[in-house]
Amino acid sequence: MLSGFINHLDLTVTDIKASSAFYDKVLGRLGYVRTTDYAGDVPCWVLSHAGMTLSIGLHQARVATAHNRYAAGLHHLAFHMASRAEIDSFYAFLLHEQFAVLDAPAEYDYTLGYYAIFFADPDGLKFELVHEPRFD
Ligand SMILES: [Zn+2]
Fold first, then answer.
1. What per-residue confidence (pLDDT) applies to 42?
2. Which CA distances in Å does 62 have to 29, 75, 121?
3. CATH topology of domain 74-136
């Protein structure tokens, strides 16, 4: 195990049932497997590869404050994608599911060939799928 890589990420959501349906579809399509191994009624999805494991869990919000990515907290979270074609395919999936697409697939000049799509969960948490040729 390499020290320093993310072990787990827990998010707080307004409606855990609605969000679970969203994350079941989105994380399932990314290869995550839903598990019931996480204590305290926390829905959890796990991705494992080459000895690395990342789990993403959901917690029920206890206050009614709306998410604002320009306040302190999470701005957005990006997932690696192996190709542009996978991002384009994911875009079609998001449209089919009528999930909130923030920015359709496009190239950005962050790094050479940076290609990304942005979308949001039911609370407006922003996610990105990105392919960067430098990691191929
Ligand atoms: Zn980003």
1. 85
2. 29, 20, 18
3. 2,3-Dihydroxybiphenyl 1,2-Dioxygenase; domain 1 (3.10.180)
What is residue 51's predicted lDDT score, i.e. its pLDDT? Answer: 85
Q: How far apart are CA 12 and CA 67, in angstroms?
A: 9
CA of residue 2 to ligand 1 center, whole Å: 23
Instruction: Please give the distance, rounded to the nearest whole angstrom, from the Cα atom of residue 21 to the centre of ligand 1.
Output: 24
Distance 136 CA to ligand 1 centre (A): 18
pLDDT of 38 reads: 67
C-alpha of residue 5 to centroid of ligand 1, in Å: 17
* Confidence (pTM): 0.93
Architecture of domain 1-62: Roll (3.10)
Q: How far is the CA of 79 from the centre of ligand 1 (A)?
A: 9
The answer to whether 76 and 127 are in contact (CB under 8 A) is yes
pLDDT under 50: residue ranges of the chain? none
What are the extents of the domains in the chain? Answer: 1-62, 74-136
